Amino acid sequence: MHIQIAFRVLGILMMMFSITMLPPTLVSLLYDDGLEMVFIRALSITLAVGFFLWLAFNRYNADVRIKDGFLITVLFYVALGIFGALPFVDDQGINLTIPDGMFESFSGLTTTGATVIIGLDQLPESLLFYRQQLQWLGGMGIIVLAVAILPMLGVGGMQLYRAETPGPIKDSKLTPRIKETALALWSIYLGLTVFCAAAYWAAGMSFFDAICHSFSTIAIGGFSTHDTSLGYFDSAVIESVAICFMILAGMNFGLHFFAFKERSANVYIRDDEVKFYLAILLITSCIVILALAYQTTYSSTEAARLGLFHIVSVFTTTGFATDEFANWPGMLPFLVFFGAFTGACAGSTGGGMKVIRVMLICKQGLREVHRLIHPNAVFPVKVNQRRMPGHIMEAVWGFFSVYVIVFLLMHLTLITTGMDFVSAFSAVGATINNLGPGLGSVAKNYSGINDSAKIMLCFTMMLGRLEIFTLLVLFSPMFWRK
C-alpha cells in the first residue's frame, strides 16, 4: 500500500470538490442572501488544502492498488464530511457548532437525510441549495464521478470504483473502460434528475424547490427545503411524482443504462431483484393502507395516499415525509421503519442492506427447508436463471453477520451517551441504512442529541454509505501489512 499515493489522489479529489462551492455561490448572488463569501472561503480553504496535499506528494506516481482504493475512498469521505461542514459552521445565522455542521455535512454526502437544523423555511436559499447539492453529489458517489476524470490526470480509477460502489455483485462493468462506465452512470443520473425537476415544476413546485427536491429524490437523500418536507406542498400530484422517481432511483442504475441502450423495459421484467423489490413495496403498502383504514386513523383515500408514499419513501431509504408516521397506531411505525433495513436495489443510490442480499438470504433459507424434506437433492440458489457461486453467498452472510454486530455495538454505544433505547435503536437504524428520520426523540430531527452521539452517528452514516467493509477493513492489522 502506498500512503503517499493516497494523499496525492486525495489532494486532487479535494481540489475537484472545492469547485462544487461555486453553484451555491452563484445562488447566493442571484438571491442576494449575503452568503457568497461563506462559500468562497470554504472553496479557498478546501482548494488550498487539496493543492498542498497534491504538491507534497506529487512525485509519487505508482498505480492505485486495491488497498490504496479503500484508503482513498474512506479518506475522501472523511475529508468531504469535514470540509463540507465549513459553510454550515461559518454561517452565523444558523449558529451551528462544529459537531452540528459535520453531522449535517456527513448526512448530506452519505444521502442519509438526517438533520440538526430547525427552521429550514427561514434558511437562505444558497444554504438550502448547498444541502441539496451535497446529497446529489453523494447519491451516485463523488468517487464514481472522479474515476471519469482521474484517468486524464494519470490516476487509475477502477479500485476507487470497486471500493465505493455498493452491492454484493459489483465487479462487472457496463462498458469496457471504467471512465466510460462512470460517465454512463452519471449520464443516467443527470437525465433522471432533469426529468424529475421538470415533473416537480409541472406539478406545482417553484423552480427553486423543483431543482432542490429533484436532487434529493434521485439521490434518495430526503433533504427538503421545508421543515415539513413534502408535506409542505400538500399535493397528491407532487407526491405521485416523488413516488415514481423514488422507485426508479431505488433500482439498479445499470438496468436503467441497458434499458436506455436497448430501448426496452424487458431488462426490468427479467430482473429478479427488481421483481422482489416491487413485490415488497406492493405487499407492505397494502398492509399499511388496510391497517390505517381499519384503525379509522384516516379516510380510505388518505390512508392510501399516506400509506403508499411513506412505504416507498422509507423502504427506498429516501426519508421524505408528509405525515409523522412515528405517531401511527400499533405496530405500523415499526413496520415502516424496519423496511429501511432491506433498502433499495444494489447499484442504486439507496441505502439499507440492499434487496439483492435480502433476496439471497430468503432463497438460502428456503433451500435449507427443501433440504430437510429431500436431504439428497441439490437445490442451487439462482438469480436471473444463473446459479450463484458459493463465494457470493458467503459474502452475503458475512455482510449480514457484521452488519448485525456493528448495529448492536453502535446501539449500545449510543445508549451510553444518554439516549433512550428506542431513540438509540432508531438513530442507528436510520443512519446505518442512510434513511434519516427515526423514532422517539429523533423522529423529527437530531438537534436534541448530544455532540458525542452526533459524531458517532457520522461514523455510522459512513458505515452505511460504504457498506461497512470498505470502512472496517482499515481497522484490520492485515490491511496495513506489506
Helix content: 55-70%
Mean pLDDT: 87
The succession of helices and strands, N to C, reads: HHHHHHHHHHHHHHHHHHEEHHHH
Give the C-alpha Rg.
22 Å
- What sort of overall outline do the alpha carbons produce when their principal axes are compared? globular
Strand order of the largest sheet: 1-2
Q: Note the beta-strand portion.
A: under 5%
**Oligomerization state of this entry?**
single chain
Largest beta-sheet characterization: 2 strands, antiparallel
Strand tally is 2
Number of helices: 22
Q: Tell me the distance between the termini.
A: 7 Å
SS-based class: mainly alpha
Unreliable stretches (pLDDT < 50, length at least 5) are: none
Task: Please provide a written account of the structure.
The termini are close together. A two-stranded antiparallel ribbon has the order 1-2. Helix 16 runs parallel beside helix 17. Among the domains are: 224 residues, no CATH class; 90 residues. The protein is built from 22 helices and 2 strands. It has 482 residues and is mostly helical. The model has no long low-confidence stretch (mean pLDDT 87).
